[in-house]
């Protein structure tokens, strides 16, 4: 509140005007952020992060560099297990394959499959 009062006095406007400007700035920022592509923002962030990581390594700051590498790993998804490859699925026997499918399907989808087996259309 005091900042708004000080700013209003400095600019020769009311505090209400300061808050209206503040709201306009916030709304403009939201519009600009939502208009930009997430992948583009992620790419720009990663580039800045990598620059900071290089600077940390050059300065011998291995702890912060490791933290930044960990953050990069999370951003790009390397901290997640890789998706199953087709050759892994092909190696499954029938019961294993059915268990895998059952984990990924909803109860309704399983009922539709059962209906297909019984001659229905799902």
Structural commentary:
With 122 residues, this protein is an all-alpha fold. The protein folds into three domains: 1-35; 38-80; 86-117, no CATH class. It is built from seven helices and no strands. It has helices at 2-11, 15-35, 38-58, 62-76, 86-90, 94-104, 107-117. Helix 1 crosses helix 2 and helix 3 (38-58) runs antiparallel to helix 4 (62-76). The model has no long low-confidence stretch (mean pLDDT 86).
Specify the overall morphology: flat
- Rounded to an integer in angstroms, the radius of gyration calculated over CA atoms is 27 Å
Structural class: mainly alpha
Q: Which percent range fits the helix content?
A: over 70%
- Distance separating the two termini: 63 Å
Uncertain regions spanning at least 5 consecutive residues: none
**Beta-strand residue percentage:** under 5%
- Please write the string of helix (H) and strand (E) elements: HHHHHHH
Total of DSSP H or I helical runs spanning 4+ residues:
7
Mean pLDDT: 86
Q: Could you tell me the number of beta strands?
A: 0
Largest sheet, in brief, is: none
What is the domain tally? 3
């Amino acid at each position: 509140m005091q900042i708004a009062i000080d700013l209003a006095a400095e600019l020769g406007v009311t505090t209400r005007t300061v808050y209206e400007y503040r709201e306009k700035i916030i709304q403009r920022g939201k519009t600009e952020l939502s208009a930009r592509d997430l992948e583009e923002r992620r790419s720009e962030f990663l580039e800045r992060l990598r620059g900071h990581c290089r600077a940390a390594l050059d300065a011998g700051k291995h702890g912060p560099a490791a933290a930044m590498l960990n953050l990069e790993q999370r951003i790009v998804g390397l901290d997640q297990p890789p998706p199953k490859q087709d050759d892994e699925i092909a190696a499954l026997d029938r019961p294993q394959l059915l268990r895998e499918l059952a984990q990924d399907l909803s109860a309704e989808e399983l009922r539709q499959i059962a209906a297909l087996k019984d001659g229905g259309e799902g």
